[in-house]
Amino acid sequence: MPRKLRVAAYAVCVRDGQILLSRSPAQDGGPPEWVLPGGGMEHGEDPYDTVRREVTEETGYRIEVTGLLGVDSSHHVLPRGFGRAVDHHGVRLVYEGRVTGGELCYEVGGSTDMAAWQELDAVPGLNRVSMVDIGLRLWRERPADGRLGPAPETPPLPGKMNAE
């Protein structure tokens, strides 16, 4: 089975109760999803430079990296259409960033189609990838070892039972 390692760097930029997010068109024609600005490292590139480059490409802003919030690692075996499955390992570095310049604009011909500041309180209602929640947890909790424990359980809604 082929193995694939992907290393990426993302930024959590929060100001005035809002978080900077990019929007990614769905691969399957479904609704677009909000993502943290960031993406894959180029060969030989430092992740610090990756996050700064990706934020500029996706949002138009220049950022100062103000800290490393943590690292998220995922490992999955992904099926391939008519080919063999791929053993995929993703390592995602999550930085805190502060906008220092530039103007909000949309990426053209890239992996995202727009960027916007979203109210922190509105994030749970957005169609988003799990990396947004991971980045926000790292930003809020700031674990000393840079790793998150299991996600807190969501309490059941009144009158509803959790699926088992």
Shape: globular
Q: Profile the largest sheet.
A: 4 strands, mixed
- Secondary structure: number of strands: 8
Tally of individual helices = 2
Low-confidence stretches: 157-164
- Structural class of the helix and strand makeup? alpha+beta
Strand content: 35-45%
Helical fraction equals: 10-25%
Mean of pLDDT = 89
Give the C-alpha Rg.
17 Å
Could you spell the SSE succession in H and E letters? EEEEEHEEEH
Major sheet strand order: 5-1-7-6
Based on the model shown, name its key terms.
164 residues; four-stranded mixed sheet; four-stranded antiparallel sheet; globular
Question: What would you note in describing this structure?
Answer:
By secondary structure, the protein is of the alpha+beta class. Helix content is 15%, strand content 40%. It has two helices and eight strands; from the N terminus they run E-E-E-E-E-H-E-E-E-H. The protein has helices at residues 47-59, 130-141; strands at 3-12, 14-15, 18-24, 33-35, 38-40, 61-78, 86-102, 114-119. A four-stranded mixed beta sheet has the order 5-1-7-6. Strands 2, 3, 4 and 8 form a four-stranded antiparallel beta sheet that branches. It is globular and about 45 Å long.
